[in-house]
Amino acid sequence: MRIARFSLDGNVGFGVVEGQPSDPDGPVLDIIKGHPFAEFERSGQKIPLNKVRLLPPVLPNKVVAIGRNYAEHAAELGNEVPETPVTFFKPSTAVIGPGDPVVYPSFSQEVHHEAELAVVIGRMCKEVPRERVKDVILGYTCANDITARDAQQREKQWARAKGFDSSCPLGPWVETGLALEDIAAGIGVMCTVNGEQRQLGRTSDMVRPIEDLIVHITEAMTLLPGDVILTGTPAGVGPLVPGDEVAVTIEGIGTLTNKVIKRG
């Protein structure tokens, strides 16, 4: 099931995306009653997807990101795979949705794309045992961990480099049909810039699987419904400049596209 968050005539809601772009009338949204973090009903009121504005699929209280979770990406930046997961935060103000602009930060001259599979948490949880991880996941979406690489390298903390406004595109929706076994077996993660492929990896190349990441994170903190975990990026990260169109495509989910613009 693909669950989207949308805006129409000033109203915000959730809907289930039905159909494919190849359908004669394109995909439609079946608006749901309530929200996706509890049992919900479909209203039967259907709207063409192209008539709404897609928003970030969730508004996370926090985004917990994992660094260097693909060995080839760690190597391309001259780093070793860490003994324990590298975790950092992106604030909720960093989150934007599909089609929203990535605003180039004034303090950086080197901004990079990082295509990532994002996990969306479905229920409040703490100290999750490995065998219960699947029970706390609502689904998955595409993410782009936009990074001010020069700031990351010169500052000991990554808060500004990773957390500036518009540095966390998410979308286009949450896919609930993927299983942890599918991700362990490997689904494709791709990034293109202006239609040119930059990154192409598979989730089977993660150093640590999602189960290990959630166990590690929830040992320290409570995750809330709608919180997001970024699972790391494959090799091939590279620069973005104003005017670029960057797209993250994840097999079984869809494509998240954003344009980079100058500030002001």
UniProtKB/TrEMBL annotation:
<dbReference type="Pfam" id="PF01557">
    <property type="entry name" value="FAA_hydrolase"/>
</dbReference>
<dbReference type="InterPro" id="IPR036663">
    <property type="entry name" value="Fumarylacetoacetase_C_sf"/>
</dbReference>
<dbReference type="InterPro" id="IPR018833">
    <property type="entry name" value="Rv2993c-like_N"/>
</dbReference>
<dbReference type="Pfam" id="PF10370">
    <property type="entry name" value="Rv2993c-like_N"/>
</dbReference>
<feature type="domain" description="Rv2993c-like N-terminal">
    <location>
        <begin position="1"/>
        <end position="57"/>
    </location>
</feature>
<dbReference type="GO" id="GO:0016853">
    <property type="term" value="F:isomerase activity"/>
</dbReference>
<keyword id="KW-0479">Metal-binding</keyword>
<dbReference type="InterPro" id="IPR011234">
    <property type="entry name" value="Fumarylacetoacetase-like_C"/>
</dbReference>
<dbReference type="GO" id="GO:0046872">
    <property type="term" value="F:metal ion binding"/>
</dbReference>
<keyword id="KW-0378">Hydrolase</keyword>
<dbReference type="GO" id="GO:0019752">
    <property type="term" value="P:carboxylic acid metabolic process"/>
</dbReference>
<feature type="domain" description="Fumarylacetoacetase-like C-terminal">
    <location>
        <begin position="62"/>
        <end position="260"/>
    </location>
</feature>
<dbReference type="GO" id="GO:0018773">
    <property type="term" value="F:acetylpyruvate hydrolase activity"/>
</dbReference>
<protein>
    <submittedName>
        <fullName>FAA hydrolase family protein</fullName>
    </submittedName>
</protein>
